[in-house]
Design goal:
The chain contains 13 helices and 10 strands. It comes from Halorubellus litoreus.
Length: 380
Amino acid sequence: MELDDWSDDEIRDYYDSLVEENSFLKELNEKHRTKIREDEEAVEVARKEAESGIERSKKHDSMLTSTISAFLPGGPIERETGWSFRGAEPLSERNEPNADAVFCNPERNIALLVECKTSLSSPGKALTQIYDAADAVREHRREVSEKIGMQIEEIETAICVPSYLDEEIAQRIEHEERNGDAEEQVYVWRLHYLQEGEKLDLFTSFADRTRSEATHDSELSQLLNSGIEISKERQVTPSFYPSSHAFQIMEAAFAQLLKRRMKDDGPLRDFTAEELRAILTSQRHLPHYAAEQVGERIFDGLMERLRSAGLVKEIDAGDTDLNDGSEFYRYRVRGRTVETVLSNLDAKYREDALDRKLELEAKKAALSEFDERQSSLEDF
């Protein structure tokens, strides 16, 4: 049993499905839990892995925001070419394969699907993701067309990577094209991290493609060839995305709630479910055409995580000075300023993430030992 290939949820679900009828598995879990928590090196490894999950998501979302910023209203791309951003993660509401963003050219009815990759541990997998996303949009073409307000007649695909990964993804694209495995003509966008800021451009130095094959068949190529400077500071950018890490969503949403509380001079550490839901379902914060539906799902998942982590608790209406709302909550951290409350929430979330990681490692070790013993009995 290769548990390393399983997702965290798959491991937890598998463990839960076995433990009720196997007291021995529960004993193994308790043994490994104690052993892992007493191992300082194992705890530090788990802490780094938990932190890296948060940081990877932050890095990815920052890259996606930079890419989107180049296409926002009033910018050079929208002003000079008509191309615009129409939403993040199309079809995520259906749990279908989806790209990070969809951009559109209404004059030619082209939908451009873009996948952002901050690293390339598996370039082939990255291409499969964009292929599957394009297939999903074709399958649901009518629905997506209605949602984004444009009849999709043509689909283009691109992968955006940091500039130092351009040749790596390009080589994989050409490898698949030579072998007849390429399902899409994938363009390569590059994000340059410069001292003076960020810049988005188009990679064209393919070994086998002609220049016309490496560039978009539209005015978009002219601007991307020259490079677009990213200026997020002057624009209203998304707060989070459908697949953002719960930590980021918590930070963004609670920052909004706490700032609002400071303005209305209300109880700083109290909020209502309605307030939080309004932020999570707003297209201002969540750039998805089905923000209400997707945001409701995010709300349910976030509240479940916050309650299980002991970050919030439900309170009675009589225990708060808030008047509007039907469900009232309080942060279970101290603090008299926005910065302190947010900092304490962040720290407590990270500690819970470490606990969850340690619990997961104990379950994995218990399941592996349990499987080995079961196999030995069968052999005997």
